[in-house]
Amino acid sequence: MVNIRGFSLVFAAALLLLGVFISIPVGVQSVGVCYGMIGNDLPSKSDVVQLYKSNGITDMRIYLPDVEAMNALRGTGIGLIVGVANDILIDLAANPASAASWVDANVKPFVPAVNIKYIAVGNEISGEPTQNILPVMQNINAALAAASITGVKASTAVKLDVVTNTFPPSAGVFAAPYMTAVAKLLRCTGAPLLANIYPYFAYIGNKKDISLNYATFQAGTTVPDPNTDLVYANLFDAMVDSVYAALDKAGAAGVSIVVSESGWPSAGGDSATIDIARTYVQNLIKHAKKGTPKPGVIETYVFAMFNENQKPGEATEQNFGAFYPNKTAVYPINFQ
Q1: Is 317 designated active site?
Q2: Which of 100, 89, 98, 97 is nearest to 126 (CA)?
Q3: Range of 39's domain?
Q4: Low-confidence spans in the chain with pLDDT less than 70
Q5: To bridge 34 with a disulfide, which of 53, 61, 174, 297 should be the other Cys (CB 3.0-4.6 Å)?
Q6: Does residue 254 lie in a domain region?
Q7: Residue 118 domain-assigned (yes or no)
Q8: Backbone angles phi, psi at 319, to 5 degrees
Q9: CATH code: domain of residue 318
């Protein structure tokens, strides 16, 4: 996760005085949790995996391959998203052999004992480096096929600024041609698009027009999309469905979205309190089973497992964790 988030000002401005009313199902299954490692006081990798297991967390995202963490996951059944570092994409795009070496080192030794679900080719890439995403995905897919590895799907993790015209949600369209090409590849391979969705950053950027209730799945008014007659009761759903609309317009209808990050900081900045963070995260977990108005159930990963004391940027960046590094909970939470 980075400090600055893209968000459509048009979308934010249109959400005037909105609220939310949401019916929350009981007994939902667990969502995943992102395991960031940018801290000098975090537990051992084996202890972290045990913490996932003891809390019933069924899926994990890591941002770089980590041998110790992946070995600790052997035999647990915990689903895993493994990231490809942003700074090696140029090499992997230009050299299929480098992509094959990456797969040989970071996937082949661990499957099937580790349940690797997705490979995230970069995280929130912007600018000229976005041109590397498609060829890296193609090279990774070829390397997986050559190694006879099935069931592991290559995608990329994007932030919301890949979509423009996001209000109403049905107006969403990709802002750059590279995303259309990525979407069509995902349609061909059956992989989902990974999207980092943060109502928090939208809310603090436009508190005048976006209510806290609407941003945190709490009771209030509902907002119809005039183009579809779908009704939106929270900001998360509207943001996700704008990405679905962009996929449809790119000729990639049927591609699913995995929310690869979503969270709320508990300290360090505007509207960052333990109580609000708990409210958002618990409601997010409950809501994931219901899903958005357009596609239904959304596989979702909470950001993040721990407060990370070496994260750069605003102080909030160090305070997205559900747990302190000593493994005690920042706030009471039920992940199931």
Answers
A1: no
A2: 89
A3: 32-323
A4: 1-30, 221
A5: 61
A6: yes
A7: yes
A8: -135, 35
A9: 3.20.20.80
On whether residue 219 sits in a domain, the answer given is yes
Q: Which of 68, 128, 261, 299 is catalytic?
A: 261
Model-level pTM? 0.91
Residue 323, CA atoms < 13 Å, CB-side half-sphere: 22
Q: Count the neighbouring beta carbons within 10 Å of the beta carbon of residue 299.
A: 20
- β-bridge partners, 153: 118
Angle between the N-to-C axes of helices 235-249 and 177-189, in degrees from 0 to 180, rounded to the nearest 10? 90
Q: For residue 146, give both structure tokens.
A: 């050559």
For residues 321 and 272, what is the distance between their CA atoms, to the nearest angstrom? Answer: 12
d(CA 5, CA 183): 21
Residue-wise DSSP of 119-162: EEEEES--SGGGGGHHHHHHHHHHHHHHTT--S-EEEEEEEGGG
The reply to whether 124 belongs to the active site is yes
Q: Do 241 and 163 form a contact (C-beta atoms < 8 A)?
A: no
Residues with Cβ within 8 Å of residue 88, at least 6 apart in sequence: 98, 102
- 325 φ, ψ (degrees, to nearest 5): -60, -20
Please list the alpha-helical segments (H only) found in 21-147. Answer: 45-54, 67-72, 89-94, 96-106, 133-146
Catalytic residue (choose from 124, 299, 308, 317): 124
Per-residue pLDDT at 30: 61
Residue 304 is given by DSSP the state -
Peptide bond into 332 cis (omega under 30): no
Structure tokens at 13: 């401005």
Amino acid at 63: Y
Instruction: Count how many domains the chain has.
Output: 1
For 77-96, what is each residue's pLDDT tens digit?
A: 999 999 999 999 999 999 99
The DSSP call for residue 329 is B
For residue 126, being part of any structural domain is answered with yes
